[in-house]
């Protein structure tokens, strides 16, 4: 899995990129948790999401937001990080210009950024949001939700109580034909400390189901 450097709006961004042998495959960018709380592209949950997509045939990119690791720039309270995510999507799409579909996934702060990107990128086919920080960030922008996706959360999340995530799901309206699937993992804390395999299995089952709908 090669280390890569690509240009972001605030300077160079470092990432990890896995390319399938066939170029015309689905692609995904995976976004990591909060940069000021030790979030990096090597976070365990971020890696498991990334690895799951690769296992199901995606070419995948995970990267460090500005100011993290060897990525240039400084933390920008989510605004600049949204631009970083857009640059990552553009870079990956340029490597696979004939991809049949583009997905975006994220964990915690990365999930919040993922869901914001849905409103800005009509080319996104599906999303996966793991432990979105529903009680900590404003999600009012997500109305109506324009893209189908999966939200995964734990019922023992000490940072974002499951009730907050469930309230978010209830009040989020959807465009016609859009479905937000939800999966609650019993016993899981915010970091899925003892449920990493179950998390990967849940995400994998969703990917398999959605790809299967399109005959892949």
Care to describe what's here?
This protein is an alpha/beta fold. 31% of the residues lie in helices and 23% in strands. It has five helices and eight strands. The longest helix is centred in the last third of the chain and has 18 residues, at 196-213. It starts with a strand and ends with a helix. The model has no long low-confidence stretch (mean pLDDT 95).
The CATH topology, please? Rossmann fold
CATH homologous superfamily descriptor: Alpha/Beta hydrolase fold, catalytic domain
Strand content: 15-25%
Largest β-sheet summary? 8 strands, mixed
Order of helices and strands: EEEHEHEHEEHEH
Mean pLDDT: 95
| Tally of separate helices | 5
How much helical structure, as a percent, in the residues? Answer: 25-40%
Contiguous uncertain segments of 5+ residues: none
Structural class: alpha/beta
CATH architecture term: 3-Layer(aba) Sandwich
Which word captures the global form? globular
CATH C-level class: Alpha Beta
Query: In what order do the strands lie side by side in the largest sheet?
Result: 1-2-4-3-5-6-7-8
Count of beta strands: 8
**Kindly, what is the distance between the CA atoms of the first and last residues, rounded to a whole number of angstroms?**
25 Å
């Amino acid at each position: 899995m090669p280390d890569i450097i690509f240009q972001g709006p605030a300077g160079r961004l470092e990432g990890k990129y896995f390319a399938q042998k066939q170029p015309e495959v689905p692609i995904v960018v995976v976004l990591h948790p909060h940069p000021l709380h030790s979030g990096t592209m090597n976070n365990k949950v971020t890696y498991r999401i990334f690895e799951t997509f690769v296992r199901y045939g995606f070419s995948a990119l995970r990267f460090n937001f500005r100011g993290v690791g060897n990525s240039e720039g400084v933390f920008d309270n989510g605004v600049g990080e949204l631009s970083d995510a857009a640059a990552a999507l553009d870079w990956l799409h340029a490597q696979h210009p004939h991809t049949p579909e583009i997905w975006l996934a994220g964990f915690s702060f990365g999930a919040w950024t993922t869901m914001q990107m849905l409103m800005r990128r009509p080319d996104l086919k599906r999303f996966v949001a793991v432990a979105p920080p529903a009680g900590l960030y404003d999600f009012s922008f997500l109305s109506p939700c324009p893209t189908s996706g999966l939200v995964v959360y734990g019922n023992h999340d000490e940072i974002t109580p499951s009730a907050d995530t469930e309230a978010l799901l209830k009040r989020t309206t959807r465009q016609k034909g859009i479905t937000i699937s939800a999966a609650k993992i019993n016993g899981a804390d915010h970091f899925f400390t003892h449920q990493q395999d179950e998390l990967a299995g849940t995400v994998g089952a969703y990917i398999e189901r959605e790809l299967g709908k399109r005959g892949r």
